[in-house]
Design brief:
Strand order of the largest sheet: 1-2-3-4-5-6-8-10
Order of helices and strands: EEHEHEHEHHEEHEEHE
Number of strands: 10
Distance between the termini: 24 Å
CATH topology of the largest domain: Transcription Regulator spoIIAA
Number of helices: 7
Number of domains: 2
C-alpha cells in the first residue's frame, strides 16, 4: 500500500469573500512524520507551531496583509487535535507579535463543547464559526445522523460561548430545514444561543444518503429577513474552501 504523502499545514495568504486576506492553519493535515502518536497522521503540535511561525514571520516581513489567522481541520475537526490548547496559545502569540490587527478564528462542527478546558481555549478566539441549521430535534437527527436528544444539549452549550458565528445552509427534499415551522423553531433556538452573527450560505450542501436541492431565492430572502427582524446581524455568503 503506498504511503500517504504529507499535506501542507499552512495555506495562504489568500483573498476570501467573507474574511478578506487569510492565512489558514490546518491542524489535521495528514503527515508521514512528526505525528502525535504511532498509527496517527495528525501533525504534532511542535510541527504545526514551527511551520506556522516560519510562514507567519515570512509573510509579515514581506509586508503581506493578513486580516484573519484561521484554524481549520481538513480531515478531522480541529478541536479533536489532542494539543488544540497548546497550538491555540502559540498561534495567538504569533498573531499578537506579527499580525496584531488580525483576528484569530476557528471553524468547528464539534458536537461536544462541555469541557471547561475546551471552552476556556475557545475563549481565546476572536471568531468561532460553527454550523447550526436545525430548528427541531427530528431535523437535527436527519441531517447529522446524531441522536435527536443531542440538539438540546448542544444548544445549551453554545449559549455560553463568546464570539460565536452561526453558519447555516438551507435546502429542501428528503432533508428539509427550510419550511416555515422549521425556520421559526431555528430562530427561536438562535435566541437561546445568542450568536454574534448569522451567516447563511447561498448554496445548499449535500447530506449523505439524502436527496436535497436548493431553495428559491425568494425563500432565501424570506429567511434572511426573518433573522434580521429577530434582531440578529445576518449576511449571505457563497461557501468557499479554505484548504485546497
Amino acid at each position: 500500500m503506498p504511503q500517504q504523502s504529507s499535506e501542507p499545514i499552512v495555506h495562504g495568504p489568500r483573498r476570501t469573500h467573507r474574511l478578506g486576506n487569510v492565512l489558514v492553519v490546518d491542524l489535521t493535515a495528514p503527515q508521514q512524520n512528526l505525528v502525535v502518536e504511532r498509527g496517527s497522521v495528525l501533525p504534532r503540535a511542535s510541527l504545526i507551531v514551527t511551520t506556522a511561525a516560519r510562514l507567519v514571520m515570512e509573510h509579515s516581513k514581506a509586508g503581506e496583509k493578513v486580516e484573519h489567522l484561521v484554524v481549520v481541520g481538513s480531515t478531522e475537526d480541529p478541536l479533536l487535535h489532542p494539543d488544540f490548547r497548546e497550538v491555540t496559545e502559540n498561534l495567538k502569540a504569533l498573531r499578537d507579535k506579527w499580525y496584531p490587527r488580525a483576528k484569530l478564528c476557528v471553524f468547528t462542527n464539534c458536537r461536544d463543547l462541555g469541557s471547561g478546558q475546551l471552552r476556556q481555549t475557545l475563549g481565546v478566539y476572536d471568531k468561532l464559526f460553527l454550523d447550526f441549521e436545525w430548528g427541531t430535534a427530528k431535523t437535527f437527527s436527519t441531517i447529522t445522523g446524531e441522536k435527536s436528544t443531542l440538539l438540546a444539549e448542544l444548544t445549551r452549550q453554545l449559549a455560553g460561548l463568546n464570539h460565536l458565528i452561526v453558519q447555516a445552509h438551507f435546502f429542501r427534499g428528503e432533508a428539509d430545514n427550510s419550511s416555515e415551522a422549521e425556520v421559526k423553531s431555528w430562530i427561536k433556538k438562535l435566541h437561546e444561543v445568542r450568536p454574534q452573527e448569522v451567516h447563511i450560505f447561498t448554496e445548499p450542501r449535500k447530506i449523505p444518503g439524502k436527496s436535497t436541492k436548493a431553495i428559491t431565492k425568494t425563500r432565501q430572502k424570506e429567511i434572511v429577513d426573518a433573522v434580521a427582524e429577530s434582531g440578529f446581524f445576518v449576511a449571505l455568503h457563497p461557501e468557499e474552501p479554505l484548504v485546497v
